[in-house]
Amino acid sequence: MYASREDIGYDFGDDSKVGSKPVKPNPNIDGGWAWMIVLSSFLVHILIMGSQMALGILNMEWLEEFNQSRGLTAWVSSLSMGITLIVGPFIGLFISMCGCRKTAIIGGILNALGWILSAYASNVHYLFLTFGVTAGVGSGMVYLPAVVMVGQYFQKRRALAQGLSTTGTGFGAFLMTALLKYLCTEFGWRNAMFIQGAISLNLCVCGALMRPLSPKDISEKYVVRSNSEDNQAKALSHSAETIKSNGVLSEEPEKKEATNEEVLDSVQHIEIGGKSKSGRKMYGLRILKTVSQLTVTVRKGFAIWYSSYFGAASLFTNRVFVAFVIWALFAYSSFVIPFIHLPEIVKQYNLSSQNNIFPLTSIIAIVHIFGKVILGIISDLPCISTWNVFLMANFTLVTCILTLPLMQTYVSLAVVCALIGFSSGYFSLMPVVTEDLVGTKHLANAYGIIICANGISALLGPPFAGWIYDITHKYDFSFYISGLLYMVGIIFLLIQPCIQKKQPREKSMEEAQV
C-alpha cells in the first residue's frame, strides 16, 4: 500500500527549475514563529470547535426557554457547525484577496457579534440568523486560516504540528462545556452568551498572530522540501511547483496584470499633475487611487480563486482530490452520529448509571486528543507514508462504526469508543494529505472544499440517523448505513490512485505502438 507521486496524481505542473545552490533554511520554517502559529491554531480550535461541541448545554436552555420541538431547536447547533465548514470555499476567496491574518480578524469580530446578538433572541428563528449563520460564518473565517497557516509554516513536522493544534478541539470540549454550564447556572443563558461573545474576541488576537510569510521564506521552504524529498524518497512527496507566491499571503509585483498597472499609473500621473489644484481635488484623486488599488486586489484574488475551481488548473481535474471530496461527504457524519446518539443507546441498554460515572462521549474526546498527536508523530517518521496512515485510521474507524451496535455492555462499548476516538485522530492528517495532493499554493481553496464536504456531512448526518430511528425504532441501522456509506468513500480513495497509475502506462504503450 505504498503510494508514489504518480499514485496520488498531481495536476498542477511546474515549468520552473530549482537550482542546486544550497539555501539556508529560514528559522521560521519548522521553528521560531511557527510554534506561535501552532499556539494560535490551538486556541482557535478551543474557542470554535470546542464551543460547538459544548452546545448541548445551550440547547437544553433553548428548549426550556422557547418551548419548541427538539428537532427544530437542534437545527440551531447544526447550522452553526455545518456553516462553519460549508463556507470553506468562499473563505478561500477572502484569503486570496486579503490574506489569512485579516480574514481571521474579521471572522473573530463576526463570531463574537453572533454570540452577543444571540443573547437578545426572542425565538428560535432569530437564533438561526444570529447564531447559526452569523456566528457560523465568523467561525469559518477563522478556522480555515488557522489550518492553512500551520501548513504554510511547517515542512518536516507538518503532521505533528497539525496534530498538536487540532487537539484544541478535545480540550475545548471539556473547558467550554464546564464554562458554559457554570455561566448558565450563575448568570442565565443570555448573559452566558454575551460573556462568551466577549471571550470570542480573543479570536482576533489569534488572527493577529498569523504573521504572513514573505515570498523569500516560501521559496526557501520549497527548496528545503525538494531536497528533503530527494534524500528521503517520501511516499507522498509534496507538490513539485516553485512557489514564488503562495496565492494566499502575498503576490509578486512583477506578475501584476498590464491593464491593472496602466490603471494605477494613470491615476498616479493624474495625482502628480493635480498638485497645483485645490486640496479638495487632491483628496478626490487619492480616493480614486485607493479604490483602483482595492479593485486590483479584488480582481487578482478572485482570479486566483476562480482558476482554482474552474480554470485549466482546476482542483477538480485531480481525480484523487475528487475522490477525497467524495470521501469527506460520508466520513464526518460517522464521527458525529455517535456523539449525538450514544446517550440514548446507553439508556436503552440500561447502562446510564455507569455512563454517568464516565460518559462514553468523554472517552471518545479524551482518546481523540492522543490519537491526533500519536498519528501525527507516526506520519512524520521518514519511513512512514502519511497516506497509508490516513487509510489505516479510516479502516479502523469504519470497522468500529459497523461493530458498535453489536456491543451491549459498558466495557465493550468503552473499548469501541476508545478506538473511535483514537482512529478519528486522522483529522489532523487531513490538511497534510490535502497539501500533498494539490500543493501549498492551492491548500486554502482545496482544504476549503474538503471542510465544506465535511460540513454537509455534519449538517445532514445526525438528522438522517434520527429519521432512520423514527422508521425502525432502532439506532443499529443508522450506524450500519453510515458505516457502509463511509466504506464507499474509502473505496474511492483506494481505486483512484490505481487508475492514476494505470493511465500513464496505457498511454505510453499506445505511443510505443504508433
Given this structure, which CATH class of the largest domain is correct?
Mainly Alpha
**C-alpha-based Rg, rounded:** 25 Å
Principal-axes geometry comes out as: globular
CATH T-level fold name of the largest domain: Growth Hormone, Chain: A
Q: What's the rounded overall pLDDT mean?
A: 75
Following the backbone from N to C, one meets helices and strands in this order, namely HHHHHHHHHHHHHHHHHHHHH
Query: Runs with pLDDT <50, length 5+?
Result: 1-23, 228-264, 501-514
Number of domains: 2
CATH architecture of the largest domain: Up-down Bundle
Structural class: mainly alpha
For CATH, the homologous superfamily of the largest domain is named as MFS general substrate transporter like domains
The amount of helix comes to: over 70%
The largest sheet is:
none
Total strands: the figure is 0
Number of helical stretches of at least 4 residues:
21
Strand content: under 5%
User: What is the CA-CA span between the terminal residues?
Assistant: 33 Å
Plain-language structure description:
By secondary structure, the chain is mostly helical. The longest helix is centred in the last third of the chain and has 38 residues, at 476-513. It is built from 21 helices and no strands. The model is unreliable at 1-23, 228-264 and 501-514 (pLDDT under 50). It folds into two domains: 26-214, Up-down Bundle (Growth Hormone, Chain: A), CATH 1.20.1250; 308-502, Up-down Bundle (Growth Hormone, Chain: A).
